[in-house]
Amino acid sequence: MQANFFVRKRRNSLMYYALLILITVVAITITEYNVVKGFTSIPKAAEWAFQNFYPNAKALNKLPAIAESLIETVLVSIAATTVASVFALLFAILGSNTTGVGGVASWISRSIATLFRNIDVAAWSMILLFSFGQNVMTGYFALFFGSFGFMTRAFIESIDEVSGSSVEALRATGAPYFSIIFQSVIPASMPQLLSWILFMVETNIRQATLIGILTGTGIGFLFSLYYKSLNYSSASLVVIVIVVAIMMIEVVSNYVRRVIL
């Protein structure tokens, strides 16, 4: 019996791999992608990067302007994430199976979260460009909407996972609804919620670079400006600054997670 189980498992695995290979071949055929040319172009791309894409002394003179744009990008990302987390917590409480009021309110909360989560921040940027134009507000609201959808879903799962038993115990004692929320649900799930918020801050700083290219603001705009003007040295400095900033923020976030979890 056990031997048959492993045989079926091996056969299913082979079928999945065969299906994956078939889908890959079909995709390559439809798109007319040249696999050999794609792999052989990698050394040439690396050679070009080593010859052109590195900061020089002239590019270092632009470091103050790059740092200023980076600070703007980081602050916008943090502001969008923190404000979105407040709204996400409210919708998560309404949509949670543990704390939700049920019925239409719970369905609306989950539906709104699903809608906002499934629209990428780049798409939000393009949509909001028609309303706000190329400015910081466009990037802020694009990050806000994307963060709101993701964190609402994450908060719902965290609340359902952490606070189920404590909510049932308080309901059995006749505790009012708001006492259950503020004395049990939020304190019990707060470490997980903070962890999701920190994760979203890191993600938004990365996404803010792409949004800046689309909206003409922040560090992304400087990268686009330097790259399109063939100033590859300055563009490479922008990339290095972004990588260093993200690594520093990730170190801080990991430290905070170890403290709160």
Automatic annotation (TrEMBL):
Highest taxon of source: Bacteria
Membrane-related topology note: Multi-pass membrane protein
Location in or out of the cell: Cell membrane
Keywords from the UniProt entry: Cell membrane, Membrane, Transmembrane, Transmembrane helix, Transport
Transmembrane segments: 14-35, 176-201, 208-227, 233-256
UniProt main location, coarse: membrane
Family from the record: Belongs to the binding-protein-dependent transport system permease family.
Protein name, per record: ABC transporter permease subunit
